[in-house]
Amino acid sequence: MPLSHWPPVSVVMPVLNEERHLEEAVGRVLDQDYPGELEVVLAIGPSKDRTEEIAEKLAEKDHRITIVPNPTGKTPAALNVGIAHAKHDILVRVDGHGALTDGYITRAVEVLEESGADNVGGVMAAEGRTPTEMAVACAYRSRLGLGASTFHQGGKAGPADTVYLGVFRRAALERVGGFDETMHRAQDWELNYRIRKTGGLIWFSPDLSVTYRPRSSLSAVAKQFFHTGQWRREVIRRHPETASRRYLAPPIAVILLTVGTIVGIIGVATGTDWLDVGYLAPLGYALLLVFGSAMEGRYLPPKALFWMPLVCATMHVSWGLGFLIGLREKPTAS
Question: What predicted TM-score, i.e. pTM, was given to this entire model?
Answer without folding.
Answer: 0.85
